[in-house]
Structures are given as C-alpha cells and as structure tokens.
Automatic annotation (TrEMBL):
Pfam families the record matches: Ni_hydr_CYTB
GO cellular component, one term: formate dehydrogenase complex
Family: Belongs to the formate dehydrogenase gamma subunit family.
Origin: domain of life: Bacteria
Cited InterPro entries: Cyt_b561_bac/Ni-Hgenase, Di-haem_cyt_TM, FDH_cytochrome_b556_subunit, Formate_DH_gsu
PANTHER family found in the cross-reference section: FORMATE DEHYDROGENASE GAMMA SUBUNIT, FORMATE DEHYDROGENASE, NITRATE-INDUCIBLE, CYTOCHROME B556 FDN SUBUNIT
Segments traversing the membrane: 38-59, 79-99, 141-162, 174-194
Gene: fdoI
GO MF, one example: formate dehydrogenase (NAD+) activity
Stretch forming the signal peptide: none
Biological process, per Gene Ontology: anaerobic respiration; formate oxidation; respiratory electron transport chain
Protein name per UniProt: Formate dehydrogenase O, cytochrome b556 subunit
Organism: Candidatus Sulfotelmatobacter kueseliae
Amino acid sequence: MSTAIERFDDKTRQVFDQIGQTEVYEGELLRHRVYTRFLHWMVALFFFLALFTGFGIYMPWLFRWFTPIFGGGPLSREMHPWFGLGFVIFFGLQTLNWIKPMKWTAADTRWMRNLGKIVGGKEKHDPPDTGFFNAGQKVQFWEIVGGCVVYLITGIILWMGARTFGRWAVAVSYVLHDISALIMLGGIFIHIYLSTIGEPGTFQAIIRGAVSEAWAWTFHPAWYKEVTGRDPIEACEEARRRSGVAGKSTTR
C-alpha cells in the first residue's frame, strides 16, 4: 500500500514526464526522470544564488564584487534569505523523491570500508552490491539534509534578529550558519569533481537522464542487475570480448 508521500511523488513524476521526455538510446539505461532532473537543477540554482549573496553579506571585504550582480549590498541582503528558502524547499522535495534509495544498508557499510581502494583507483569497479546510490552519495545527501535543517533554524533566527531571539541566539546562529555553508560547499566541490572527471559519464545522467550500460555496471552494479536482470561482471566481460573481436576485424 503506497503512502501519501509516494502517491504525491508518483503523480508529480507523471506530470513532469508529460511536459518533458527522456531519450534512452541503445546501450543506455534510464537513470533520472524529468522530475528528478528538474529538482536537481533548481536545488543547484538556489544553492549558488544563496551562496553568492551570502558571500557578499558575510565577507564583503573579499566578495564585494558579487553584490552588484544582485543590485547592490542592501538588495543582496534582502534576497539572500529568499534564495536560501528556495534551496530548502526544493531540496525538501528532492528528499521526498529520494528517501527510499537513500536509506543506509549493510552494502553501504562495506562500501565505506573499501573506500581507500575505490578512491585510490585500485578497484576499477564498485563493489557488486552497490545499488542505485553508493555510500558516498548517501553520506552527502544526509549531510545536506542536516545542513538544510541548520540553515532553516539559524536562517529564521538571523532573519528575525536579536529583538525576537536575543543576541546570543543570533551570534550562535551566525557561526552555525557559516560552518554549515562551508561544509556543504566542500561537499559540492567533491560532487562536481566526481560527476565530471572522477566518474566519466555521470554528468549526462542529470542532463539527459540516461547512462551507458558500461557506466552502470562499473559504478552501480547491483542497480544494473536489478534493471537488466544480467550479471554486471558477465556483461562487462562480454563487452570486452565483443570489443576485442571488433578491434581485430578492423586491423585486417
């Protein structure tokens, strides 16, 4: 029996699928539907809008060149909390969209234990039980969930000011707000690296919504097996054999 959240999310996905479409070509798998991609880019947009206006507010001596983009310092200060609220709202919707696949499992614990080999390049393929998201992606997701909670609470305190919450609450909120922003910014840099250079082929998943089968069996083998019914190792070996045969035939 589906929950109210699942019914809402399914209906919203269907509406977005009618508005846009995802082209999946031969040798590819559907990774992210239109609704997921829309939420991802809205989250990214409002995060960076909040970040840039925040830089201009909290470190004007270093980032004062940001503020003219938003109409000057006073207007940047007015727009910053609204950008932050937009970020929290859209990521809240993304949380509903991803709550199931982001649940921590025993496979994620094993992935974390193997992190050194994965980062060091000793493991060319992720562990065979890596599903739709790996443990690293789940850690970042839940870090952002926690960050959104901190943003929302401290942001409201800073927005309302000392007259409502007192000087100590505002002072503490400034510190927590900034620390949370720096942690999230560091995570975003890692996210950008992995989605481009670190794991080639990942970026197109959130642009086009589809990924190659090779990408799927390399980075998310359990998910590949779930959607295709094929063993990822066997599929990889078969692709290598076909490539070898093709290579030999072209050299004759």
